[in-house]
Amino acid sequence: MSLFNLDLDYFFDKEGMLLYTDEYIKAFAHNLYNALENIAVLTIAMSLECCGGWDKSVNILRLFSEIFGFDEVLQLFD
Questions:
Q1: What is the pLDDT of residue 70?
Q2: Helices 54-68 and 22-34, packing angle to 10 deg
Q3: Cβ contacts of residue 10 below 8 Å, gap of 6+?
Q4: How far apart are CA 38 and CA 59, in angstroms?
């Protein structure tokens, strides 16, 4: 078992521009979801200062939520 820390700024360049398509990000999320049996702790750092703000971070988090199903967490940002 391992710890996996996902920084959402991975998906952005230094100027806060998204580097990957939604489809790519969802595929990444799906692969990560399938690996959960080997992950003891999963953390997700929103890294808003490196993603161009809250809105961009939350949008990526929403894509992950489509796979992981943590919609209740997203209610905090509505």
A1: 85
A2: 50
A3: none
A4: 26
CA distance 32 to 38: 10
Give yes or no for a contact between 50 and 16, defined as CB atoms under 8 angstroms apart: yes
Block means of pLDDT (10 residues each) for the chain, length 78 residues?
Answer: 93 95 97 96 90 91 92 72
Q: How far apart are CA 16 and CA 32, in angstroms?
A: 23
d(CA 7, CA 3): 13
> What's the predicted TM-score (pTM) here?
0.86
Q: What is the pLDDT of residue 78?
A: 72
Q: Which residues contact 39 (CB under 8 A, 6 or more apart)?
A: 1, 2, 3, 4
**Structure tokens, 44:** 């997700």
User: Tokens 């700024």 belong to which residue?
Assistant: 9
